[in-house]
Write a structure and sequence with these properties.
Layout lengths: L56 H17 L7 H22 L11
Length: about 110
């Protein structure tokens, strides 16, 4: 077992300054080249020249491509009555899940939309 009787001040780890929430191991996600004087894209107005910078392209791609693939595949896949029944039931269950998730928040909390 190692002895802890060493009292050398150079061997002691230097504690980081505490962050406002009490953590001491905070490391910012942005790099050192980040300029605090430059405004973030969300603080800039949406114009015809900069609208594409405000779009979350990953989510937009999934939201457009998923139904598009399903719509295109209906040309080759025949519709069975079991599949149609499943689609209708699944549609209403999805709506119920969205409604239940939205009303879960207390009235005094801001909505997360």
């Amino acid at each position: 077992m190692a002895s802890s009787s060493s009292s050398s001040s150079s061997a002691a780890p230097v504690a980081a300054a505490a962050f406002p929430d009490g953590t001491t191991d905070f490391k910012p996600l942005r790099g050192k080249q980040y300029d605090l004087r430059k405004p973030h894209i969300t603080e800039q107005p949406i114009t015809l020249k900069t609208w594409y910078k405000h779009v979350n392209w990953l989510n937009t791609t999934f939201i457009i491509l998923t139904p598009l693939v399903g719509l295109i595949s209906t040309y080759w896949v025949p519709l069975n009555w079991k599949t149609a029944l499943f689609a209708v039931v699944y549609y209403f269950q999805t709506g119920l899940g969205i409604t239940a998730g939205r009303t879960r928040h207390r009235p005094d909390q801001p909505p997360y939309i």
